[in-house]
Amino acid sequence: SDVCSSDLVTSGLLGNAGTINLGGGTFDNNGRVLVNSGQVSGWGTFRAGQWTNNGSMTFNGGSSTINGGLINSTGKIITIARNPALFTGNVTNGGTFKITSTTVTFAGSYTENGAYISDPSDNYFRDLNIGSAGVLVGGISDRFFVSGNFNNGATNHAAWDTASSKLVING
Predict the structure, then answer these.
(1) 122 alpha-carbon distance from chain centroid
(2) Against a cut of 0.85, is the pTM above it?
(3) What is the SS3 assignment for the chain?
(4) CB half-sphere exposure, 145, CA atoms < 13 A
(5) Are 64 and 86 in contact (CB under 8 A)?
(6) What spatial distance separates the first Cα and last Cα of the chain, rounded to whole Å?
(7) How far apart are CA 69 and CA 110, in angstroms?
(8) Cα 39 from Cα 123, distance rounded (Å)
(9) Would you give per-residue pLDDT tens digits along the chain (171 residues)?
(10) What is d(CA 19, CA 22) in angstroms, rounded to the nearest whole number?
């Protein structure tokens, strides 16, 4: 289903096996959980009580705000490219977060159990929790800012690559 402009899904979608493509405006799932096995893309405000990504999510074309908690399942990808994104709820990544030439902000806690790849971008975290399989990857122009707690339990040292990045912990 293509959703454009400002759409409130009154009864809430339980799942998305198709495409939710927003070109500005607001997609509102009326506070209900949304399991995405298809594609969520575009820019604007995306609202759900909780998001579970079992497909793909790509935010670009303009600024995006993703309201509600988010779980990115193992092997799945979320891409934020060239335009800023704000995640307001707690985020848990088991797959890949790919950030390209932009700024991304996590206002809730962020838990990394997969790969967070920044190419070059500014990444703002309130609380950043890295699980044993989690890695951060960034280059010379990448910056990671943590305003709260930073808990690093990573054991995959070979895949972790932030030697050229800037990590600022203010918490």
Answers:
(1) 13
(2) yes
(3) CCCCCEEECCCCCCEECCEEEEEEEEEECCCCEEEECCEEEEEEEEEEEEEEECCEEEEEEEEEEEEEEEEECCCCEEEEECCCEEECCCEEECCEEEEECCEEEEEEEEEECCEEEEECCEEEEEEEEECCCCEEECCCCCEEEECCCEEECCCCCCCCECCCCEEEECC
(4) 10
(5) yes
(6) 42
(7) 10
(8) 24
(9) 444 445 556 778 889 999 999 999 999 999 999 999 999 999 999 999 999 999 999 999 999 999 999 999 999 999 999 999 999 999 999 999 999 999 999 999 999 999 999 999 999 999 999 999 999 999 999 999 999 999 999 999 999 999 999 999 997
(10) 10
Residue whose tokens read 């405000």: 45
Which two tokens mark 66?
């993703």
